[in-house]
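Notes from the 1:1 (GR / supervisor)

We went over the backlog. Supervisor wanted to see one worked example end to end before approving the batch request, so GR pasted a single chain during the call. The sequence is below; no edits were made to it. Supervisor asked that the structure be written out right there so they could see what the output format looks like.
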Amino acid sequence: MRKSLFAVVAVLLLAGCGGGSSSTSFPTVGAARTFEIVDFEPSAPVPAGKPTKVSFVIRQPNGQPMTSFKRGPGPHTGVHLIYVRRDLGAIVHRHPPIAADGTISDNVTFPEPGPYKLVVDAYPATGPQTNFQLSHSLQVAGEYEPVTLPPTQKSVVVDGYRFTMNKVPSLRAIQAGFIDFDVTDPNGKPVRFTPYYGALAHAIFFRKGTLDYFHTHVCSAGAAGCTSTLGATKVTGSSDAPGRLSVGVLVPVAGTWRLFLQTRVGDHILTAPFTLTVRP
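Structure output shown during the call:
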C-alpha cells in the first residue's frame, strides 16, 4: 500500500513569457479535480459507546460516484475505514460493504469521547494508483480528556493476551524495517491467528500531532497482495510459527509514532498499541 496524495486529474498548465504590453493575457486554468468524500453522515456529534451509522460516497474527478473497487483475497481490497482519536488514545478499524451505487456505510461504536479523524483508505479496481487516502473529521460527544502517550514499552497486555517485542527497533523514515513480536494467550501459550480483513495482522501507524498514516500487513505464507509500498520502497510482514509476527514498518517522516497492532485470535479482536520513535 502506498501513502499517496489524493488522485488528481491531469491539468495542462499553460505558462507564457511576454513583454511589457498591457494587452498580454493568460489562460484561466481551473482548479484540478480530485477524489473527495461527499454526502457524509452523521453531520452532528455522535455518542460514545453506542452504534452510530456512518455513510458517505467517494466522488471521482469526473463527478461520478466511485463504484468499482479492487476485489479478491488479501487485505488490499475494497475500502478500509480507520478512525483515530486526535491524541492517539483510541482507534476503530472497519472494512465495510459498498453498495452498488457506491455508498459506503457501516455501524461504528466509538469507545471514548473526543475529536476523531477518519482515514478512508480506498483501493480502486482500475487506474494508475494502487490505493489512495481521503480524510474526514468527526466529533464524539462527551468530556474529552487527552491522554499522554506512554514511552516505548516492550510488552502490552490486551484482554489477557500479551504482545511482546523481542527487541526495541531502530527505525528510520522511508526505510523498511521489521519488529518481531511474540503473542501469547492468558495461559502463556502461543496463539493461532485467525485471518481478519484479509490478513493475519494489521499494523496501523499514526504520527503524533500530525496524524500522518501508514498501514502494513502480515499475511499467511504464500498469500498474494500483502506488500505495502511507499515510493520505491516495499515491505511485507510474515509469520513463521504460531504466536510469531514479523511486522513490517514503513513510515514517511520522522517523529513519534503510535503502532496499533491488530490481530484476531478465535473470536477475540485484539488491538495492541505501541509507541515508536522514528529517526530521519
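Supervisor's comment: The chain has two domains: 36-140, 155-279.
Batch request approved.
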